[in-house]
Amino acid sequence: MSLDLFTAFNSEDLWLKFSDKEYNLAMEKAKNFASLAEQHQALINFLASNCLIKWLNMTYGDLISQVNFEFEDKDLFSIWQFVNGTPLIINNLSRRLVVIPEECEDLSEFNIPQEWLDIPQLRGDYFLPVQVNLETGWLRFYGFTTYEYIKKYSYYNRYFAYYILPEHFLDDDLNLIFLFEKYQLFNHVEYQALPQFSSVEKRQFMEQLNNLEASRVRHHLNFVQWAALFADKSCRLSLYKKYQPISLGSWLENNFYQAYSQGWQNLTDLMDSLNFITSSPSVSNNGIVMRSGNVNLEYIYQINDEKQLKVAAQRLSVLPTNSVHKNQVLQALNYIMSRSHDDETRWHAAEGIWRLEPNNPNAGLWCGKRLNLGVEMGDLSLALVIGVLPKSDSQNSIFFRLYPTNNHLLPANLKVQIMDEETKVFKQLTSREGDRILQYKFWGNKGEFFWIQMNYHSTQLSEAFII
């Protein structure tokens, strides 16, 4: 980044113009988060802080030695997962400057998360609000304040755990920060220490956060308990890792630790409450091929036509698990898997193999997760099911399904969006009256990200995955 990429105007506010390169760098950082809300929080935090650091070091190099990020990426990610704000360090750890970006139009109040004031290890000295406009490419730094001013003039919102400072208490001259630093004019303010907890107590707090949505973690414990975890690097990183995009490639290596820690289950544990496959055909050793629901098992090995293989796979995929033809059908389905290159055919065959022999390598890997879309859903719960099947050395096939549990129907107008790594929607599904399932098959390159977002009335949930 060079000086000509920035423009400063207006005697009161500092405006910085960011480039496409800076935006793309911030987007790369943001991909480390599972939900779109957390991804967006990381995006604006890195963008605002990174641009400010470069501008400050170029502009105030004669007054200060350097302004830098206080933490490395993983530590920053673990902060942004739960709390808005980025700590920067002035003059080699002498002062902490906390940058807090927002996209709101109303600048009458400055909201500061409690963590930046009441956790001694993270307590800020200076605080900079930033108005971010991603559409126009501008960052507006409209003032700063200090720890002392916030404690003296703000009011505390217990529900959001924010200190709220009226805008007129902000000082609009950013030069003062660096003059304070150069001439050692900063006031040292006393702060209250927090109680200390043992490792056993922290472990108990962590257990209380199991299976919670990331947005609820910060408010589930009282602040003193939460602060003990958030200030502890190992605890904070552990919590962060629990909410990372699910690695589907790990499933193909029989590694489900991450998925299980985020509330996913092996599909066999959800089968009792899901109407996974509903119909069952008859299987005849000498029946007419593909006619009247019968399948001639011997003739399958002579099929070369992809359409006929697909019909055979579809018919065999719903065989009852207690059928006397189980072994012959398994052999036929495995044969179809080896012969077909069509995703639809292979998924039908994989489903049939999974029903008869879940641990078979050709069955694909299936996991499900119960979802809670809030009180608007009444007593109805949903289950998100994902299947993974190798397609080639560099690609995997994905099978998405959304079920109501306990034989309910899906509510009408439940919307599901499947988005690529740039959060562009490439498939949208909407349930109709009487629907029992929403499903979609697609494939992607290994290492690509995608999101599944579910919307019902005002409630929204999203899950992130790495292929």
What does this structure look like?
This protein has 467 residues and is an alpha+beta fold. Helices cover 32% and strands 24% of the residues. The chain contains 16 helices and 20 strands. The longest helix is centred in the first third of the chain and has 24 residues, at 36-59. The chain starts with 13 loop residues before the first strand and ends with a strand. Mean pLDDT is 84; it is low at 1-11 and 277-293.
* Strand residue content: 15-25%
First and last CA, distance: 33 Å
Count of helical segments? 16
- Rg, please? 28 Å
**Portion in helices:** 25-40%
Indicate the low-confidence ranges by residue numbers: 1-11, 277-293
Mean pLDDT: 84
How many strand elements?
Answer: 20
Global outline: elongated
What structural class is derived from the secondary structure elements?
alpha+beta
Largest sheet: 7 strands, mixed
